[in-house]
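Attaching the record inline, Q. Sequence:
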Amino acid sequence: MAAAKLTTLGIAVLELLHERPMHPYEMAQLMRERHVDNRVKVKAGSLYHTVERLLGNGFIEVVDTQRDGRRPERTVYGMTGAGRDAFVERSTHLLGDVAEEYPEFLSGLAVIHELGRERSLRELERRITQLRARVAADRTVTQRLHDDSTPEIYWLDWRFTAARRAFELEWAERLLDELKTEKLPFVCEHEPKLVTEKENDERKTS
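Structure, as predicted:
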């Protein structure tokens, strides 16, 4: 795995190994505690696969094996010099380069007119309800981080996500208001007649 192709999950693993050698189960636990799934899709299978890839490419190495009672033996991994170099190079690009990203919400916004006023307002309200719940949860997590005196430098990724979600909520609420008050009117006078097959069948049977 070339440094330029080091995945974000690979970065997360090497990030933990900067602290100390550890086995994948411990990595998974720490990732849950630190909300790494906020920025990386973490599944047990993908984590173990990533560890194997890092090992195969010489970015990590086996430094110990541990056995706790009757539990299966656990392999402890440490980061190599090559891994540290790859980590620094890839992380530098992740921080400094502006990458093209394609949030699905943008595609939803692009088809609002085709969906029509009634459906669009309903779905925007549904999205706003979900966002409000998530923003409230974000505040709870942020408060806990402050209460635990966790240095903020360690959770800048979380701070960014919470701020972005709060911004999206504010923006969506403003859009909903503009659509409801017709400050932002639909161009066509008539409601677009986009219905799914399921909706069409329900209309026929009602």
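The mean pLDDT is 89. Residues 3-96 form a domain with the Arc Repressor Mutant, subunit A fold (CATH 1.10.10.10).

More tomorrow.
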